[in-house]
Specification:
Elements: H1 9-37, H2 41-46, H3 49-84, H4 86-92, H5 99-105, H6 110-118, E1 122-126, E2 132-137, H7 148-155
Antiparallel strand pairs: 1-2
Length: 156
């Protein structure tokens, strides 16, 4: 299932444009690489080994420079958010979060919340407003406790 979020038309346009540029660059690099495979062995034998590796080293160095630039941008973005949004982060975290508060926020009983937390597999169905409509817990999927398979899996 793909989760679609609402975006502005500008964000969709920028995303589409950057994706198209990426695919064009991929096809360009791919089409430039295939003719090099078809070069005759005589041409390759006449060129020294460092000259053969130079284009690959240049490409790898460009990739490293782009990766370092992306890492720098990511670090600057993190610092920006830490500096400017520190007050929102402090005020936005709930301080006294217990089972009663969590259960009431999801409109569940505490008993059902504990069953949900203890289950290995849970399927949660929501209604159109986003509220929990139905829960399927793994206790329905587990074999009875006198089954040998269940005892082996529980012991492991």
């Amino acid at each position: 299932m793909i989760i679609n979020t609402r975006c502005s038309r500008l964000a969709i346009l920028v995303d589409t444009l950057l994706t198209a540029i990426g695919w064009v660059g991929f096809y360009y690099l791919l089409s430039e690489g295939f003719p090099a495979w078809g070069a005759s062995p005589l041409d390759v034998a006449q060129t020294p080994l460092p000259a053969q590796l130079l284009p690959t080293l240049l490409t790898l160095s460009i990739y490293l420079i782009v990766a370092a630039f992306n890492a720098l941008l990511l670090m600057l973005w993190v610092r920006y958010h830490k500096f400017f949004f520190i007050k929102l982060r402090r005020d936005g975290t709930p301080s006294n979060l217990n089972d009663n508060v969590v259960a009431s926020s999801f409109k569940l009983s505490c008993n059902l919340l504990h069953k949900l937390q203890d289950s290995r597999i849970s399927v949660i169905h929501h209604d159109t407003r986003g509220d929990i409509a139905r829960l399927e817990l793994d206790e329905l999927l587990q074999p009875p406790s006198n089954c040998e398979i269940f005892e082996l899996t529980r012991a492991a």
